[in-house]
Amino acid sequence: MTNEELYQLMKDGFEHVNQRFNEVNQRFNEVNQRIDRVDTRLDGMDSRLRTVENGISELKGKQSAIAGVRGWIVTACAVGALVISIVVAIFK
Known about the structure:
This protein is mostly helical. Helices cover 97% and strands 0% of the residues. The model has no long low-confidence stretch (mean pLDDT 90).
């Protein structure tokens, strides 16, 4: 094998390696683009789930407030009934 043949063989080999490297690099870029799209979708889902979580928290807060108001209404009715029964007992 002469020097020219060895040079040509090595040149062809390096060109093949460079071509394969460029193909692999292109596929990595495609994978990175897909990962970026997935990240974008996950960010959107995170925002939507945060909105749902806030809504549920607000509903729970309203329910607990309504339960507290119901307790005060029952207590006020009981005190009112007690006052009315005392007034009726005194004036009868």
